[in-house]
Specification:
mainly alpha; 4 helices; rod-shaped
Length: about 110
């Protein structure tokens, strides 16, 4: 897994004498995703301010879960809108099949 390799690389940087902040910033540069940037920023800020890291990471995990939930809800809303076109075509075909015999019969009878 590439994330595991990145953490190993970060640990090697720490073993070679880099500060934790430098190793984390390099990690964020190599993995330019929002979640990694948030994680690195949280860890650095927690160290600077002396906040307990475990609590800060718990809060961040909750925020990431909420963000993922919102993204899933948005995807579901988009899917509902995208399904309207095919549903309208299917509905039109069903109406035509159900009313077709009636229309043909009324045209033949002159109604």
């Amino acid at each position: 897994d590439s994330l595991v390799e990145e953490f190993r690389f970060m640990l090697r940087e720490l073993e070679l004498g880099r500060t934790r902040r430098q190793a984390l910033e390099n990690f964020a540069d190599r993995c330019p995703t929002e979640a990694v940037r948030d994680f690195v920023g949280t860890v650095i800020q927690s160290e600077e301010k002396g906040n307990p890291l475990a609590e800060v990471l718990r809060i961040q995990a909750t925020m990431l879960r909420m963000r993922r939930s919102v993204m899933a809800e948005e995807a579901a809303a988009r899917a509902a809108v995208l399904m309207m076109g095919p549903l309208m075509l299917i509905f039109s075909a069903i109406i035509l099949v159900l009313l077709g015999p009636f229309i043909v019969q009324s045209m033949e009878s002159g109604f």
